[in-house]
């Protein structure tokens, strides 16, 4: 098992190798100094790629593990500009209906939700666009699909949780289904 942790203050990432997910002994720690990390906030791993949202600049850093998470990742160039500072959440998924990887990210300070269209490969430089603004304190973001419909969930430090429908494709414009505070049960949520 591998566990990856972003290290905000040291601008690095740690890989923890575990014999079993059920124990905390026999752990191997590998500190990874990765060019381009600047107060890394969130990490998404998928298809042997990693995506790290920087908090102190406008970059989404893309990592290629070359087919195996035991490899030392290389930074895929060019870096991806979000257009905003204080980036927090990121998620990406593959949409079979359009043969494309689509990602969504948040910018906390601007209240923006950014869409990343990678096309048919995570190695492609994505097109980016701001698809929502005014989502105060946007932090965590999560994509999920249920019964053929995609949803974009956003957690905000204003104790709000948003559920946006993307319909049958990740490329569609988000439509707000509801926002809620879950009856006051959230307190400064960070991620989903």
Features:
single chain; 192 residues; mainly beta; 5-stranded antiparallel sheet; 4-stranded antiparallel sheet
Helix content: under 10%
Average pLDDT: 93
**Number of separate strands:** 16
Radius of gyration: 17 Å
- The H/E string reads EEEEEEEEEEEEEEEE
Choose one word for the global shape: globular
From the helix content, strand content and strand pairing, which structural class follows?
Answer: mainly beta
The N- to C-terminal Cα distance equals 22 Å
General description of the model:
By secondary structure, the protein is an all-beta fold. Helix content is 0%, strand content 53%. The radius of gyration is 17 Å and the shape is globular. It starts with a strand and ends in a 12-residue tail after the last strand.
Brief summary:
This protein has no helices and 16 strands. The protein has 192 residues and is mainly beta.
């Amino acid at each position: 098992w591998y566990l990856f942790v972003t290290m905000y203050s040291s601008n690095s990432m740690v890989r923890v190798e575990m014999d079993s997910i059920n124990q905390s002994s026999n752990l191997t720690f590998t500190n990874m100094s990765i060019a381009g990390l600047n107060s890394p906030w969130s990490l998404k791993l998928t298809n042997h790629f990693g995506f790290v949202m920087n908090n102190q600049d406008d970059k989404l850093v893309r990592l290629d593990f070359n087919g195996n998470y035991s490899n030392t990742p290389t930074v895929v160039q060019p870096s991806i500009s979000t257009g905003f500072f204080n980036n927090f959440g990121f998620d990406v998924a593959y949409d079979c209906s359009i043969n494309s990887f689509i990602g969504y990210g948040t910018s906390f300070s601007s209240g923006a939700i950014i869409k990343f269209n990678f096309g048919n490969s995570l190695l492609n430089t994505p097109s980016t666009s701001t698809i929502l603004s005014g989502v105060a304190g946007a932090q965590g973001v999560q994509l999920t699909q249920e019964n053929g419909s995609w949803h974009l969930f956003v957690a905000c430090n204003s104790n709000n949780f948003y559920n946006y429908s993307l319909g049958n494709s990740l490329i569609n414009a988000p439509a707000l289904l509801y926002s809620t505070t879950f009856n006051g049960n959230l307190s400064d949520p960070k991620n989903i």
